[in-house]
Amino acid sequence: MDDSIVVTPDWLAPRLEDPQLRLVDVRDAWEYDGIGHVPGAVSIPFDRYRDDSDVDRGTLPGADAFAELLSNAGIAPEDTIVAYDDTHGVFAARFVLTALEYGHDDVRLLDGDYSAWNRDYETTSDVPEIEPTSYDPNPLSPEESPLIGFDAVEDALERGALFVDTRDRDEFEAARLPGAVRFDWREAVDDETRGLKPESELEAVLESAGITPDREIVLYCNTARRISHTYVVLRALGYETVAFYEGSLTEWQARDGEVETGPVAT
């Protein structure tokens, strides 16, 4: 697993005093304050890096809005960011994707979550002193970005890209993009450790769904949260051709895109 994308608690623990390390806790503010957090972490709740004007789809907040969040959190472009939640990393992965999209070079997901950290390491209720920065975002160009829109999805369908639906079975059977395969994002997670399954197990479960590094892959769900986790996992495993349908099924159906329904033989 590539530790430039996903890091373990054991990797993080000895680096907590690194002045260029910035920990971001994306849980609700009451959890950060009332339950405790990883020492040194700042609070940027999940709803702060979603577009308030687009509640149904929950799309990206915009480069300037995100930069303001990071500035207020004392984060600079050269810092290493490690994000975590308490939900197996699915909300934190959305932060990782957002930071990457707006040009932050070094942002990583904590393998596991707050509960996994709390099993072996100390937590705190102390809030770190923050010295605001003037964060200047550098959004990826359309050619660099993994995000694609409706028209690009239609093109990918025509050329036979592999569409991966990261939702649960009921959602998948209710409506899905044509030819999509299902890979519930939670299949990557070990319920006992709360972190990712071992790399060999991940590769096996992905391969069983037909998801292999040689394929052109397009990820979607409903509102682009769950695919964020799968995107980070695939990146950490070395997958290179992975697109991210930000509008996901919500936009696809709103624009009368073709869907399939019903169970799929396994």
TrEMBL record:
The keyword Protein biosynthesis does not apply. It comes from the Archaea. InterPro entries: Rhodanese-like_dom, Rhodanese-like_dom_sf, Thiosulfate_sulfurtransferase. Signal peptide: none annotated. Residues 17-126, 157-261 form the Rhodanese domain. Pfam families: Rhodanese. Keywords: Repeat. This is Rhodanese-like protein. The lineage of its organism: Archaea, Methanobacteriati, Methanobacteriota, Stenosarchaea group, Halobacteria.
